[in-house]
Amino acid sequence: MMTGHQTGLLGELLAAEYLSRQGLRILKTRFRTVHGEIDIIARDRDVLCFIEVKYRPEGRLGSGLDSITRDKRIKLKNAVRVYLSAKPARYRIGCLEITRAGVLYFPDILHEN
Predict the structure, then answer these.
(1) Which run of H or E residues covers position 56?
(2) Minimal CA–CA distance to 94: which of 81, 80, 110, 79?
(3) Would you say 56 and 91 are in contact if contact means Cβ atoms under 8 Å apart?
(4) Coil, helix or strand for 93?
(5) Looking at the 3D structure of the chain, how many domains does it have?
């Protein structure tokens, strides 16, 4: 049986493979700051993509996005600011969810809803 940490790593690996197949170039995984961790940093043409991965192998499709609360979005934005402090760029923050039903990719959760 896998630990929660191992399950998370597997989810990030699967997410990176999916994003690569969609044409994104993976730049970094598990970028850590004092504000928290960014699961995947990728490039989609001229836009940096900061992606939160939700791996729910037993969950229902759509529940991962619901778990990104207002506080989590603030932490993500602060972590992104740390990354961009070295070199500003156009960016978006997304969520990729993997469940037994499939993959959902929300490329820009700050402008969703």
Answers:
(1) strand 47-56
(2) 110
(3) no
(4) strand
(5) 1
Residue with tokens 């991962």: 64
Domain range for 51 is: 4-111
Q: For the domain that residue 30 is a member of, what is the CATH number?
A: 3.40.1350.10
Q: How many residues does the chain have?
A: 113
| Report field, pTM of the whole predicted structure over 0.85 | yes
Q: Dig out the tokens for 3 from the structure.
A: 């630990």
The amino acid at 99: T
Q: DSSP label at 35?
A: T
Q: How many CB atoms lie within 10 A of CB 101?
A: 12
pLDDT tens column, 95-110:
999 988 888 999 998 7
Helices (H), the chain: 4-21, 63-66, 70-84
- Residue 56 CA to residue 70 CA, distance in Å, equals 20
What is the enclosing helix (H) or strand (E) of 58? Answer: none
Name the β-bridge partners of 95: 52, 106
Query: CA–CA separation, 18 vs 96, rounded Å?
Result: 9
